[in-house]
Amino acid sequence: MTPYEIIAAKRDGKELSAQAIANFFDGYLAGRIADYQMSALLMAVCIRGLNAAELNAWTSRMLASGEVLDLNFLDRPRVDKHSTGGVGDKVSIPLAPLAAACGLAVPMMSGRGLGHSGGTLDKLESIPGFSTQMTIPRMKKQLERLGVVMIGQSKTIAPADKRLYALRDVTGTVESIPLISASIMSKKLAEGLNALVLDVKYGSGAFMKTLADARRLARTMVEIGKGAGVKTAALLTAMEQPLGAWVGNALEVKESIGILRGEVENAVTELVIEQGAHMLVLGGVARKLEDGRASIRNAIHNGAGLEMFRRLVEAQGGDSRVADQPELLPAAKRQAAVLAPRAGVVQAMDATSIGWAAVDMGAGRKRQEDHIDPAAGLEVHAHIGGRVKKGQPLFTMHVNHAPGRDDAIVQRLLSAVRIGPEDAAPPELFAGIVR
Ligand code: URA
Hints:
Blueprint: H1 3-11, H2 18-29, H3 35-48, H4 52-64, E1 79-83, H5 92-101, E2 106-110, H6 120-124, H7 136-146, E3 148-152, H8 159-171, H9 177-189, E4 195-202, H10 211-227, E5 231-238, E6 246-247, H11 249-260, H12 267-283, H13 289-301, H14 304-315, E7 334-339, E8 344-349, H15 351-360, E9 377-380, E10 387-388, E11 393-399, H16 406-415, E12 417-420, E13 430-434
Parallel strand pairs: 1-4, 2-3, 4-5
Antiparallel strand pairs: 5-13, 6-9, 7-11, 8-10, 8-12, 9-11
Helix pairs in contact: 1-3, 2-4, 3-8, 4-9, 5-12, 5-14, 9-10, 12-13, 15-16
The structure holds uracil.
């Protein structure tokens, strides 16, 4: 089949053979198929979907476009976690060192902020000196020595995803369950894992707005993982409001350090403990979830997780003094409170808008070439179900920009919070598990 015939077949809802998918990818990566043809196929997939056989072929080609790490030399189980993304989701930062302190090898490759959602790499890079780039041989050495690395996707890992992602970002083809599944799983399968815990988010700040779609995405990714021989479980968790109390890069690192120090107990801490417990059970270092939860709690309380974080930061060139003196992280010059316009109970929050407000402050990018302001972001004082008085701060903005830019951001933040007279229940954080 020619590229034209393959695109037209998917447009008309026909099944593509594994050979047709392989030929299309090979042609694209070799430069014989143009970006506009790949974009047309992506849109056809977005609308028509892929069945299980097509998705397997698609994911395998993405994986085969690069290197698959061989980490069999490690004497610990190799387990990673991955979140589908949200606002204030800093779980990976305390979780990776805690899981390593409990006996796992965690070869974590993360991404940058995407649209309104924050990225682990941008957060880590707010630590002075911290480098998220590393050669594969160095990564292997650090994993052997410490049990944890936190880096960006290397050029040689699933390079097809990098190119497809850039196209999807600008062609309205991100929100597709098969394309998201293949994108995430091709990168994770390239890490040479024994097990993977996925945090699939649903709600106002997630890419999947409904629990039903999140469940479909979770099932699809778990099937791909299991099909590749990786023990995979997906937790379905709420992203109906910013996670925890802080949004913004250095601010979220500070909150993460608070969790590692045992000083912060909030929804982020709950997710860290639950996802950590699943990682330990799937990796075989805890027998039951309750044991896994106890091990993670222990590693918080005895300081083993904080010590691992310190060593991780040092190993990757960062200033490890931040573990004890978070005030060494970049701080914004100015703070401004956003006040509740009326008294009542917080009924709902549009976490995507709050994420975009953080991007407006400089905590994320609107264009690929934009620079991040590591200090910018906000403290979230109110959550769903909380009662507020008129004039009480809903948010505190931490900014370096001129005050003239505040008004538009304040308006965006205020319209993201619905305050009403009736009581409202906070959303359940855990909505199920797919395995
Ligand atoms: N994260 C990814 O890596 N890929 C997607 O398609 C969406 C979120």
